[in-house]
Design goal:
Elements lengths: L4 E5 L5 H13 L4 E5 L6 H10 L7 E7 L4 H8 L4 E6 L7 H8 L8 E2 L4 H16 L3 H20 L7
Parallel strand pairs: 1-2, 1-3, 3-4, 4-5
Helix pairs in contact: 1-5, 2-3, 5-6
The structure holds 5-O-phosphono-beta-D-ribofuranose.
The site of 5-O-phosphono-beta-D-ribofuranose (RP5) has 11 residues, from strand 3.
Length: 163
């Protein structure tokens, strides 16, 4: 069976953030494979990954990087698959550099950019699952049920007190 979602990142140091995407995918029963693919340090590996992603059976790619974060855009330039970009919080500029590097793509090369950091990574996993759910009624129901249970929980905890 093929794995539908590739989760790639520029460095081992991105894993703490990017594992959130994998957690979200696992929560909805979506298969994933995570690996380090650096745009700057291993450019040949990047090209090989992007060019073979379709043949590997992937349907969505989640790519996270920090700083001068070229990884998602470079992958998007070489594959027809949808690419979701996660700006990893950088040490120098708190991820604003990552965000701007990923989000401002030229017309015709699309990267769906998420929020900086862990929330963005988790949401990338959720969004990848939602994309796959368009063709998977069981997955769509799992996501719908999860949204309902979250809403129920918020309503149950909505009353903070009175006097
Ligand atoms: C980027 O540089 C990576 O995506 C990472 O967020 C950042 C720092 O990498 P390390 O120096 O921690 O390997 O390429």
């Amino acid at each position: 069976m093929t794995i539908p979602v590739a989760v790639v990142m520029g460095s081992q140091s991105d894993w703490e953030t990017m594992k959130e995407a994998c957690d979200a995918l696992s929560q909805f029963g979506v298969g994933w494979k995570a690996e380090v693919v650096s745009a700057h340090r291993t450019p040949k590996r990047l090209v090989e990954f992007a060019e073979t992603a379709v043949d590997q059976g992937y349907q969505v790619i989640v790519a996270g990087a920090g700083g001068a974060a070229h990884l998602p855009g470079m992958i998007a330039s070489m594959t027809p698959l949808p690419v979701l970009g996660v700006p990893v919080k950088s040490r120098a500029l708190s991820g604003l550099d990552s965000l701007l590097s990923i989000v401002q793509m030229p017309k015709g090369v699309a990267v769906g950019t998420l929020a900086i950091g862990a929330a963005g990574a988790w949401n990338a996993g959720l969004l990848a699952a939602q994309m796959l759910a368009a063709r998977d009624p069981d997955l769509l129901k799992r996501i719908a049920d999860w949204k309902t249970s979250r809403a129920d929980q918020v309503l149950a905890d909505a009353h903070l007190g009175q006097e």
